[in-house]
Amino acid sequence: MSPSTSSNDDSFRPLTLRERLWLVPILLKLPIVVTIGIFRGNKGRSWSRSANLALTRYLFDHEWEIHTLRSFIGVTTSQMYQTWARSVKQEVLTDVLPEGAKLHWIGPRRDASHHKVFLYFHGGCFVLPTRPDYFPFLHSLQKALSADVEEVGVVALEYSLAPDAPVPTQLRQANAALTHLLQKGISPSNIVIGGDSAGANLTLQLASHLLHPLASIPAPPTLSQPFAGALLISPWLAYSLMSDLVKSGVTPELKHHVEPATAPAGWWSGLDGVYPRLLITAGEHEGLFDEIIDTSRVIGEHVKDTTTVVEPGGIHEDMIVKFAVGQGGNGQDYDATVAFLTSSFRGRN
Model confidence over 35-46: pLDDT tens digits? Predict the structure, then answer.
């Protein structure tokens, strides 16, 4: 397997002695930071959510070496998926794809021609695996959809991680995942594509590749009709956060594909022939708010059925983060997501 398609399992090695010593003062301060965060950053949130937010902000305020951070996390996306599947007594259902990627099914595998599929790309700046809250979130969506949509499936792409697998490896793997589903005979009109943060970025990368094919990536599949829609949760639209870890692979040819916020308005001409419906969500207090709103306006000029939902008091990926503290499955953004996916699969405009 070439380095660009490595699964990066070696990045999850045990912590070295130097790394353990570096972590000691960080971990010693955690109880104080979390306690202060509960009282200073409440803003109407529960104590558990405020504590989780304070913890996340504190950890990401430090200059981590990416391999140290992955070792601190300790598990790959595959391992998280397998742990989750065992916890809910679900069979592990993984499709191994070309290009070194994997598809993990949440709920039953739905890969027959008449099935409907929500293809999901996780966030993490393209350098981190999924978090433990992702699979409960996707499982909740799968159960909600199954109540109103027959034979619908949810499947999550595990892509290789930068910088070991530089950009545009993740687009190459997303393209392979889409091709895999279409080769099963599933109609594009029965597929919704979406993701959070970097995964939402990847959702737009895929659309850009369909509209403006890259010579460095296998050709995108020919669509017989548009997809059912696309979901962008707190989309990461410009490489500012952790930029040094992903920018090394960004050539001028790739600029607008991987940084949608930099694309000229005309770039999205024809997007409604790929994604005829879009739901974009953002948290009221998230750091990416302005670029999300600005880009949603630009995209909305080309896809008239574009809805933007701002979660009051919400943070980045708010509807997902709630699952980390046992409070998932509610909120304006979550309710809008379930309604959007349901109506997209049922063909409502």
Answer: 776 666 556 666
| Cis peptide bond prior to 168, omega within 30° of 0 | yes
Domains delineated in the chain: 75-345 (3.40.50.1820)
Contacts of 102 (CB under 8 A, 6+ apart): 77, 78, 94, 95, 96, 157, 158
**Are the C-beta atoms of residues 168 and 217 closer than 8 Å to each other?**
yes
**What is the spatial distance between Cα 42 and Cα 45, in angstroms, rounded to a whole number?**
5
What amino acid occupies position 310? V
* Token pair 């410009």: residue: 238
Max Cα–Cα distance, the chain, nearest Å = 57
Q: Strands 102-106 and 191-196, how do they pair?
A: unpaired
Place of tokens 């202060």: 36
Reported as a single tens digit per residue, the pLDDT across 38-69 is 666 556 666 666 666 665 665 656 566 777 77
